[in-house]
Specification:
With 201 residues, the protein is an all-alpha fold. The chain has helices at residues 2-12, 14-25, 32-43, 46-64, 66-75, 81-97, 101-104, 111-120, 125-149, 154-200. Helix 2 (14-25) runs antiparallel to helix 3, helix 2 crosses helix 4 (46-64) and helix 5 (66-75) packs across helix 8. The longest helix has 47 residues, at 154-200. The protein starts with a helix and ends with a helix.
Amino acid sequence: MIQQFLEWLQTIGLPGLFFVMFLEGSSLPFPGLIIVLSYGYILAPGYGSTVFIAIGMSFSYTIASLIPYFLGKKVEVHFPKKFKKGLDKSTAFFKRYGIWSIALSRPFGVGNYISYVAGMSKVHLFKYIVLTFLGIYPWSYIMILLGDYFKGNYQAFQQYFQSYSVYVYLVLGIGITIIGLITYKKVTHRKKDFSRMKEGG
């Protein structure tokens, strides 16, 4: 059964992986992590190719995350009671870390709810898109590599994650911070160049 499932994923290829990330980003209840790990094993892309695969995954996730973002902007408090618990947790996370919670929360369960909170909080769309991409990219990259390492075995991954969760969080946090700083410097540099051009003109 498992072998048939893996063969099916292999037949679909990368479009299937990107579709899985789209479903994840849309906040639908979906076992995306298990399938992403399976894809890591099937593709076994190596460090270089994973860079580009993770870009595609992050792009799909980010586009889909606009669905809960705009829903949060429109419906605000009108959510089912079952939804409230996760929403309350993500609201507390958002209040603690501000808009950076959009990036920091992506690798964790509260990440999907943050999309709604960001919409409800009227976070600027461009900032939301950038932070979502920055937050999900390290997760995408690492999960593909871990899927290859654990041969798609979710149970083995779970045991490893429980044992070394602190280190995993640390690596993800460092990755998000580095990417965020690089992006911030580039944007700041472009603004300075634009200001100089205006002054010169």
